[in-house]
Amino acid sequence: MDDLINQLIATTFGVILAKVVDVVWERLEEKTSRRRGDGERRS
User: Fold this and answer.
1) How far apart are alpha carbons 8 and 11 in whole angstroms?
2) Spatial distance between the Cα atoms of 40 and 43, rounded to a whole number of angstroms
3) CA geometry: angle 13, 16, 20, nearest 5 deg
4) What is the pLDDT along the chain (43 residues), one digit of tens a residue?
5) Rounded to whole angstroms, how far apart are CA atoms 21 and 16?
6) Which helix (H) or strand (E) holds 14?
7) In this structure, which long-range contacts are made by residues 33-37, counting pairs with CB atoms below 8 Å and at least 24 apart in sequence?
8) Rg of the chain over all Cα atoms, to the nearest angstrom
9) What is the pTM of this model?
10) Which UniProt keywords apply (predicted)?
11) What integer pLDDT is reported at residue 33 of this predicted model?
């Protein structure tokens, strides 16, 4: 029973971590694309 609980916790933590990383990565990509876009507009 403990193994099942530990597996469930690990899976849940993995899913949450994946979502957080995905959101952070999207924000970083938005910032870099905005900077590139501004640079292209100026030139």
Assistant:
1) 5
2) 5
3) 135
4) 899 999 999 999 999 999 999 999 999 998 888 766 665 665 5
5) 9
6) helix 2-42
7) none
8) 19
9) 0.58
10) Membrane, Transmembrane, Transmembrane helix
11) 83
